Amino acid sequence: MGITLTGRLPGIFFNGSGTGEGNSLHALSVTNPVYTTGAEALLTEILSTLVLGFLIGLTGALAPGPTLVATINASLAGNWTAGLKVSLGHIIIETAIFFLIILGLASVASPYTTAIAVIGGIALIVFGIMTISGSRSASLSAAPLQAASDPYMAGLLTSAANPYFWIWWLSVGSALLIKALAGGLLLAIVFMIGHWTADTSWYVFVSTGVSKGRTILSESTYHRIMAVCGVFLVLFGLYYLVGPFLLR
Fold first, then answer.
1. Whether residue 27 sits in one domain with residue 73
2. For 153, which of 53, 92, 161, 241 is 20 to 30 Å away at the CA?
3. Phi and psi torsions of 176, nearest 5°
4. Alpha carbon of 30 to those of 16, 170, 228: distances in Å?
5. Is 71 within 8 Å of 83 (Cβ atoms)?
6. Number of domains in the chain
7. Does residue 37 belong to any structural domain of this protein?
8. What is the rounded distance in angstroms from the CA atom of residue 43 to the CA atom of residue 36?
């Protein structure tokens, strides 16, 4: 007696016949376009969130401030690891902020996502203009000639004592992180990884140059990089500002 089999299993299509002597399956296909498309979309989302976190983090790290000064000071009596230690101290306080947002602040702020987006967009534009303006006089050698005894604590304290740091996280940072969290905890973590990679890369870059008795970047190049970052902040702020209204 012959048996004809036709049908579809998840990821497998078969059309064959069986007899008492044996069975044969034909036209096997083990691909699933739905799963493939979903995986590609997730990978794209992860990469775009990682790049966004890196670029946003870099614009903040480049700005002259107490943490940059602490990096330069610690590097005068140390080596390239001073930048890594300072950035780790900086990351400790940002980790606390991250958990605060994902454990409670995000749920409290969820009804106000449009308002948060508008405030974040305005803050990005303001910080961008400030970055462009400050790029003309910014300097990598404007640190007092004294060494920090504990780079980890220096990174933590200079971050906590910096008003710009808190204003940024209460406006831009929280808005971006809440938006990433809307896509799942994984994207929120990826955003922070990109952000911390930018901080660590820049501070290690600076400490490497200072510990060798020179600055790797010329002042003019540093000014141009800051200006470009400022323009990026303004453009992204405009996009972030109008985004909620375009989606209506």
1. no
2. 53
3. -65, -40
4. 16, 49, 48
5. yes
6. 2
7. no
8. 11
Provide the residue count of the chain: 248
Residues 156, 157, 163, 167, Cα dihedral to 10°: 20
My answer on whether 10 and 132 are in the same domain is no
- Put simply, whether the predicted model's pTM sits higher than 0.70 gets the answer no
What 3-state class would DSSP assign to 7?
A: strand
CB atoms within 10 A of CB 76: 17
The parent domain of residue 76 ranges over 43-246
The residues, any chain, with a CB within 8 Å of residue 58's CB and separated by 6 or more, are: 198, 201, 202, 229
Residues 150, 171: one domain? yes
DSSP β-ladder status, 12-19 and 3-9: antiparallel
User: pLDDT digits over 116-166, tens only?
Assistant: 677 767 877 887 787 788 777 766 554 444 444 688 988 888 888 776 787
Placement of tokens 């940072």 in the chain: 173
Structure tokens at 82: 């001073």
